Amino acid sequence: MSFVNLKQLAGELGLASSTVSRAMRDSYEISTATRERVKSVARQLNYQPNPYASCLRNNVTKTIGVILPQLDNHFFSLAINGIEEVAQQNGYHVLIYLTHDSGEQEKAVSKYLTSGRVDGILLALASGTRGIGHLEKLKLLGVPIVQFDRVNETLRTATVTTDDYASGYQATEHLLRAGCRKVAHLLVSESLSISSRRLQGYRAALAAHHVPFDADLVLTGTASNDENLRRIARLLTQRPDIDGIFASVERLALSSYQACQQLGIAIPDAIKIIGFSNMETATLLAPALTTITQPAYAIGKEAARILFQAITKHKPVLPAQSLELKSELIARASTACAAR
Amino acid sequence: MSFVNLKQLAGELGLASSTVSRAMRDSYEISTATRERVKSVARQLNYQPNPYASCLRNNVTKTIGVILPQLDNHFFSLAINGIEEVAQQNGYHVLIYLTHDSGEQEKAVSKYLTSGRVDGILLALASGTRGIGHLEKLKLLGVPIVQFDRVNETLRTATVTTDDYASGYQATEHLLRAGCRKVAHLLVSESLSISSRRLQGYRAALAAHHVPFDADLVLTGTASNDENLRRIARLLTQRPDIDGIFASVERLALSSYQACQQLGIAIPDAIKIIGFSNMETATLLAPALTTITQPAYAIGKEAARILFQAITKHKPVLPAQSLELKSELIARASTACAAR
DNA sequence: CTGTTAGCGCATTCAG
DNA sequence: CTGAATGCGCTAACAG
């Protein structure tokens, strides 16, 4: 048993392949009788049109590409859930590419997609990306791109992000209100939009509360968790006056937690930690860890929705279509903090 | 600017498209001089061969399909990491489909792939799958399938799993050795291979330690976390003699943890919990929760490796190529347990 | 309402 | 070493 093609099916039916093609696609110019007959025999022979032939003919691939830094972060898993759902609703297929936060990998992947393999792209930028020539090229080729979460602001596309500035502000304010005065801030990479905007929020909140900004309290993470752990521990040792940590990303919140445990620092009494997280686990298992949860699933869905709108209407994605969704601060330990 | 095709490139070069095609594919019958010239101009014009045309011509899609129940479980995210890596190494593209554990969705997805869209399939079975006709059809069509993690044993394909029986045994034994006598077991779905094999391990360990099996201590979960939480709490209330819980899956371990917290039961003193988990978070944040970690990343890689072997050698995947990898028991609280 | 024909972009004959 | 011609499977334009 092998794949049945249109011609074979037409032969079996005693019809021309064009007729069969039309019948299969419910063309109005085919009589109901033959349409039904065609469909019945097609079902019987398990006929499925070859997607690649249609694609070649129609210049429509019915597939989108999703480029992500990683998948070991729950945020992106949830985002894909949303993306895949919207894709399936629209009859689209989803190609997935991981860059492991490497700019080189991102370039390589972009090149694959320069060939017309996909009708559109959803992109969360790698932290290692420096230039954006590879993305400009895709845009120039007319491939619609929607950026989400980690976006490059120079590239003029629609973006779907969370309220990074606002949540950075809120997080910091949460700690300040709980009595913290020396709040450390941990970020992933200076070049990442999410990091810089959260940092801005952090600084603004400090300023609003008349707490001086101290550059020594800002730590940039690396790709290695072990290294991050060491650095955080060193910072906490060197600066025993630190009474709060705002981690701009889940991994760093966990490493902070771990560092405190290692150093025997009590959470949340001696130190208060707040960090982004999309793992229910974190909030469940560590009530002391105040978390900020991003609507990852909704972000995926919205990004996909904007992309499909552009694809089906043959319009470019415009920065004006950008969306900013709200994060949610979940402070299970807030009472404890306030009580102090 | 739009896509450049072979013909245009050939025109630019003053060569026949066949020559250019050969040059691009490093054919031995092309002189080094023209090959270099072709490649240089190709680079300059951003020529990328249209993958769908090649596919039509060669009958090779260079893409695989990955069918998964969900992605809200860290196990599958890690597995995709492995799969994607091996795919990229082999120059392959990865299409992803989520079934949300629905048998209907799995059937629909299978149908998409009946059209020659992919060269092979990696599959983790939906818990809602009843018949396997849709998979048999794919096999009959000659599409290689490798099953991983959640496998159907009737379908004769290679499988990559973990030592579910052994780890179920170990987990149970771990609790028994820590002094537990009434060990509850929480499983996902009776029809799932991982569940039934872990259950077998559980029963065997009980038997080996002369602890009678009590069917009332076995609870099957639902799709709803809230419902699971309620059921677990009810079980713990009705059976205050329970002194240990073996959760066969992360979500259920977390729900157990939560249920104990709600009921004010101390962990790990009053009750000991052991559960599968691939979240570093869980072990990090809840030392009281003994976890069994599956080598998810390796499973993805191995499954992909077996699939690519079959694809490149045009051989069917045989059950004989199946692999069983080892899980790891991480008992941070084991000392506490043993001390009791 | 149905059939004939041509061509999407590429790779592979077969000829030179 | 290079070029011309053919067809992968499908659809759309053009006939009838």
Can you describe this structure?
- Chain A is of the alpha/beta class.
- Chain A has 3 domains: 6-57, 434 Repressor (Amino-terminal Domain); 61-162 and 297-325, Response regulator (Rossmann fold, 3-Layer(aba) Sandwich); 164-295 and 328-335, 3-Layer(aba) Sandwich (Rossmann fold).
- Chain A is 47% helix and 15% strand.
- The first copy, chain A, has 14 helices and 12 strands.
- In chain A, the strands form 2 sheets. A 6-stranded parallel sheet of chain A has the order 2-1-3-4-5-11, with helices on both faces. In chain A, strands 7-6-8-9-10-12 form a 6-stranded mixed sheet, with helices on both faces.
- In chain A, helix 1 (6-13) crosses helix 2.
- The radius of gyration of chain A is 26 Å and the shape is elongated.
- Mean pLDDT of chain A is 91; it is low at 334-340.
- The structure holds a DNA duplex (16 and 16 nucleotides).
Assigned CATH class of the largest domain in chain A: Alpha Beta
Strand order of the largest sheet of chain A: 2-1-3-4-5-11
| Major sheet description of chain A | 6 strands, parallel
Helix content of chain A: 40-55%
CATH architecture of the largest domain in chain A: 3-Layer(aba) Sandwich
Unreliable stretches of chain A (pLDDT < 50, length at least 5) are 334-340
What is the C-alpha radius of gyration of chain A, as a whole number of Å? 26 Å
The end-to-end span of chain A amounts to 73 Å
The biggest chain-chain interface is: A-B, 53 and 53 residues
Mean pLDDT of chain A: 91
Give me the secondary-structure category of chain A. alpha/beta
Strand content of chain A: 15-25%
**The CATH homology group name of the largest domain in chain A:** Response regulator
- Annotation field: number of helices of chain A: 14
Shape of chain A: elongated
CATH topology of the largest domain in chain A: Rossmann fold
Care to count the β-strands of chain A? 12
Whole-number count of domains of chain A = 3
Quaternary structure state of the chains depicted? homodimer
